[in-house]
Amino acid sequence: MTANLASFLYLVSGVLFIMALRGLSHPTTSRQGNFYGMVGMGIALATTLLYATPSFGGLLLIVGGIAVGGTFGAVVAKRIAMTAMPQLVAAFHSLVGLAAVMVAAAALYSPESFGIGEVGAIHAQALVEMSLGVAIGAITFTGSIIAFLKLDGRMSGKPILLPLRHVVNAGLAIALVVLVVMLVAGQSTTVFWLIVLLSLVLGVLIIIPIGGADMPVVVSMLNSYSGWAAAGIGFTLGNLALIITGALVGSSGAILSYIMCKGMNRSFISVILGGFGGETAVAVDDGLDRTVKQGSADDAAYLMQNAQKVIIVPGYGMAVAQAQHALRELSDKLKAHGVEVKYAIHPVAGRMPGHMNVLLAEAQVPYDEVFELEDINSEFSQADIAYVIGANDVTNPAARDDKTSPIYGMPILDVDKARTCLFVKRSLGSGYAGIDNTLFYKDGTMMLLGDAKKMTEDIVKAMED
């Protein structure tokens, strides 16, 4: 295969990746977007193999690696529960970062294979690109592992605030710049691995101060990091497809991080410098009567059957209980009784962007019934029932009314403006942000305490009876 043909095919794969991102921007075109992405990646892989023309032994190693990695990925993706999808994404990001480090190391020890010079005489430009790729890759690797541990509950969701952490991080960043200069000047393998080591440490220190409430932003941010790491290595390899793909992932991840921060009324810098969130709500003396009105499935069924409009607000509690199919059955029952049903999705509901949309799509909820916050928030005041199923922080009125609250200013779903708010939750505990939800104690709220799936199924049975 000629270089011109390879460049053309890489360009085709890049266009398909752009079409994939465009398709994934809306639920109705997401399947088509996935298809474009898979075809683009297939073309990129085939082009790389044909253009590189490896030896028979090398080809066997490549095919074997693809077979092992592909099988492992398929098995993990098939077995993983939808509730653990954010953890899976974080884990995969770590592998992208590790791959960037390994490719950079291979280029350092065998530069003639990559066309960037010889051992001890690597082009300065390639060394700079290599340094950026390996630093970002190592940060992504350890940062993604910490994010995985926090999301999976194997590490506390509370921010871990080390003393002088900003000074330490700034010192490590300066040291990395100095080491990059030393690598370009001396091409020392020791300096290269020092860059890797400091970057691995920096990845841990950047993520551990970020609390549970900011984890959706972290997942998006690490996605961006992995893209920039791939783009940096793409320049080192002179691989057009890798450059295009990395730039697309890096820029789209950065934009999504900005959108997520806006949805939480948080600045990106404040997230990086240390977020909020934990497992336990802090008791506050705000003079609020903390008496709750608790109801049953029969009460909820009666109210819903006599309503004209019901807005369903899914959250992470629905994901944990895997209640999306029961929710779809409830929705069908309500529509059979002539009740108008809509779904309201907050931008940061769940543990990663689009988490709730994927779960509802899995239950075959019609796309035209699902609305984003800005499109449906004004309708809560005309709704008879707001059925909140595990969405805690994104419905907390404190974000709108309490200037002393850590989440003050975060856009929320105004479920308290509905005539009645039915709130399904296991207990009165705090959400992932570790903040008490004042919605529980409002006059128009009825708490339905219990497992989200069982409670929803009991409501459906009560409606049938």
From TrEMBL:
Q: Which reaction does it catalyse?
A: NAD(+) + NADPH + H(+)(in) = NADH + NADP(+) + H(+)(out)
**Molecular function (GO) terms listed?**
oxidoreductase activity
| Keywords linked to the UniProt accession | Cell inner membrane, Cell membrane, Membrane, NAD, NADP, Oxidoreductase, Translocase, Transmembrane, Transmembrane helix
Bilayer topology annotation? Multi-pass membrane protein
Could you tell me which residue ranges the NADP transhydrogenase beta-like domain spans? 8-461
Where does it mainly reside?
Answer: membrane
Could you say which EC number(s) this protein's record lists? Answer: 7.1.1.1
Query: Which EC class is the enzyme in?
Result: translocase
- Compartment(s) of residence: Cell inner membrane
Annotated coiled-coil segments of the chain = none
Q: Where are the transmembrane segments?
A: 6-23, 35-52, 58-77, 89-110, 130-151, 163-185, 191-210
Its job: The transhydrogenation between NADH and NADP is coupled to respiration and ATP hydrolysis and functions as a proton pump across the membrane.
Give the UniProt family note: Belongs to the PNT beta subunit family.
What name goes with this protein? NAD(P) transhydrogenase subunit beta
